[in-house]
Amino acid sequence: MTALKYFRRFFSISLFVSTGLLLCANSSLADTSSSSQAIVNKCSAQGYAQLKLTNNVIVNGSFESPQIHGWSVFRRIKGWRTVSGPGIEIQADKVAGTPFHGLQHAELDSDANSVVEQMVLTQPLNDYCLVFAYSPRPDVGLESEGLRVWVNKKAVHEIKRSGLDLSDTQWEVVFVRIKTTASRKPTSLRFEPLGNSDSMGVYLDGVEMYAIRD
Ligand SMILES: [Ca+2]
Questions:
Q1: In order of start, what are the domains of the chain with their CATH numbers?
Q2: pLDDT confidence of 210, banded at 50, 70, 90?
Q3: What is the CA radius of gyration of the chain?
């Protein structure tokens, strides 16, 4: 953890307090995401037929486990493992931004860019709706931002936004429809941070996945 990173975090917290944004949680977005009907509506709005969704099959997609204070970097946490890089950074106490859901979120440019993976128990040859929330880190520019999503080692989505001029997180909820293979093995879901590997950037929270029954 670099001194700069400490400084930037301190600066961010100071900025939140000074602007009063510390109390401004993204509760409305979180509430929307947790509603399965809202997810059905979102997927439908993207041209999908009327959908019925089963239970969320992602484990610890809100990064609430383990419960920590401040921030820590882990090789493994419940549901997730590190594929490359030093590990998954979990942030709590709004040390450098407000989570999308719950009390914690992940930063994928932890001590350096790190790819994380969950092996998801899925049914073969079934459509799923993958939902997640991405935010750039406040005060971090486009050159150190961006997120690529991989399903069974195929890139299925990419999102990139600048965090410059942000005084808090600005979460964007992404919906991706995917199809599993004929294999009965679990589906590999990976999140890869893009941009400079400099210990700051690429926030992830609220990962959920639902089987679709047309
Ligand atoms: Ca969370």
A1: 3-213 (2.60.120.260)
A2: confident
A3: 17
**Ligand 1 center to 60 CA (angstroms):** 9
**How far is the centre of ligand 1, averaged over its atoms, from the C-alpha of 50 (Å)?**
29
Q: What is the pTM of this model?
A: 0.80
If you measure from the C-alpha of residue 114 to the centroid of ligand 1, how many angstroms do you get, rounded to a whole number? Answer: 18
- Residues 126 and 175: their CA atoms lie apart, in Å, by 16
Position 118, amino acid: Q
What does each C-alpha distance from 34 to 86, 90, 114, 196, 207 come to in angstroms?
Answer: 31, 21, 27, 32, 11
CB 13 within 8 A of CB 188: no
CA of 182 to the centre of ligand 1 (A): 32
